[in-house]
């Protein structure tokens, strides 16, 4: 299980490019960093925002870049071209990434055999993502209640202001701030109470000089008022409200359109929908959300020593743990996992199963069989499945050294082959 804990971070970063929760990274990017954040609970998906678009970046670059830096991406790697407040650096001219057609690898001839080159984790990811150019497989309209963790496939614009009227954020009194400029506990200002706002109703009341209106949290702020004073800062005597402190204009008021203005993009394309985005969409009356279809992921375990969890292992056998760990990790990322079963250590059976999976899956994950032993057949099978084939075979992590990353037939079928339980 320790091996999967190490490899899980690699899996998450690979999926970051397969699930389009950030803008496509197959185009060149040049602009200023407006924000940066870690998106996943596992702390492995690193995002920077450039010209209002989010992009996944490798951890070392995320660690180095600062908000306000000017960055560029040439289709292969990210770099800082100008630090905030410093003169620009001398860098080569920006050229778009080479492309042999949609979905084709940016370079060829990168396949390796056995452990020809052991790469650091960051190097393995850079090499893999320089070859893989995944594309969304389509889009669909999803009901709002099922849109959590889906990825928005189109810009969503506000059809109205949110909130649609000025709202009070506290229980108190709507006032004119200029009436209270000199209010203090020793010399409170007396205001005439002329009415109260009812929740859920439009008010026709108006606050004139020297007046105030009772307003509940969430209630409409009446015309003429530009602030709300908390009831804790008042006392009532007869028909007058005594205010013991001044309030600036706008205090305790959520203004019309403060959350969203009619016509503005509130959810950019490529946004992974979190609970807060769903709440915003609900507030705007958006109940059908355009979303990318999630990637389909086939998961296999390989090894003659494996048995299902409901079987009693015989001497020399162990229960399959990797399949359930991987399918759960895939589902958590928003993809659709399908477990293809336990495959024996026979090259013909494994190849047939992988080819069949490639017909319907966007990603194939297989654990086991990636080392250099006589029964480790994936290193033999995967290069036969398409070009360029094996991109990485060997990552400097322990355990997990035999990890294979492959890309076959210039389409979005990826084989991320992981060490098995025994490695």
The termini sit apart by: 10 Å
Overall pLDDT confidence: 81
Beta-strand percent range: 25-35%
In total, the number of strands is: 25
Task: Work out the helicity level.
Answer: 10-25%
Tally of contiguous helical segments = 7
Radius of gyration: 29 Å
Low-confidence regions: 5-10, 16-26, 93-114
Largest sheet: 6 strands, mixed
Structural class: alpha+beta
Strand order across the largest sheet: 12-9-11-10-14-13
Shape, please? elongated
What can you tell me about this protein's structure?
This protein is α+β, with helices and mostly antiparallel strands and 423 residues long. The protein is built from seven helices and 25 strands. Helix 1 (2-18) runs parallel beside helix 3 and helix 1 runs parallel beside helix 5. The longest helix is centred in the first third of the chain and has 17 residues, at 2-18.
Fold blueprint:
Elements (H helix, E strand, L loop, with lengths): L1 H17 L10 E10 L7 E5 L2 E4 L2 H6 L5 E4 L4 E5 L38 H11 L7 E5 L12 E2 L9 E2 L3 E4 L13 E8 L14 E5 L11 E4 L3 E4 L2 E4 L9 E2 L10 E3 L7 H9 L4 E5 L3 E7 L3 E2 L10 E2 L2 H11 L3 E8 L3 H12 L4 E5 L10 H4 L6 E6 L10 E5 L5 E5 L5
Parallel strand pairs: 10-11, 18-21, 18-22, 19-20, 22-25
Antiparallel strand pairs: 1-2, 1-4, 2-3, 4-5, 6-17, 7-16, 8-15, 9-11, 9-12, 10-14, 13-14, 23-24, 24-25
Helix pairs in contact: 1-3, 1-5
